[in-house]
Known about the structure:
Largest sheet: 4 strands, antiparallel
Number of helices: 4
Strand content: 15-25%
Number of strands: 4
Helix content: 55-70%
Strand order of the largest sheet: 1-2-4-3
Order of helices and strands: HHEEHEHE
Amino acid sequence: MARINLLPWRDARRQRRQRDFAAAVITAVVITLMIGVGVQMQFSHMIDNQKARNEYLKKEIRQLERTIKEIEGLEARKQDLIARMKIIQTLQESRPEIVRLFDEVVRAVPEGVFLVNLKQNGNSVTIEGRAQSNARVSALMRNINKSDWIGAPQLLLIENKDQTGTGLSHFRLSFKQQRKKNNEDASPGA
């Protein structure tokens, strides 16, 4: 039988397999590292992209906050202007009312009644005066009640002729200034 020495061949084969295995391991490690670096770069790119988006959103939010503050300022200014317009409108509407008040008071005062003092507080008017008799004060109250612009007379005080020593009764009377009862706004001279 022939003797063949297979040991060097097996040894060479083993060394080749070890070299192939080492090359495969190194190749796998390199590929894994390359994939890891690629994934890391992708994540880094995605993070940078998201940071840029966040910064853009922050910038837009700041701009919107400035716009909201401007709108709030404009709303406050609008409310202030509306309040001023209402005050001006109220003053314009009430301007002829004092003329109407004096006109109606003059019409309501009968002969024998003399007014000494007139005070107005809002819609309430208080008058003080002198009258020749209590009947004249009653006539004044009836005339006030009949008026379209003044009404609700209320006698606050009356002193008889005997108590005053002037020969005239002293009285204090209050009434309300009101809009025309039939809701027609006529001119003051009408």
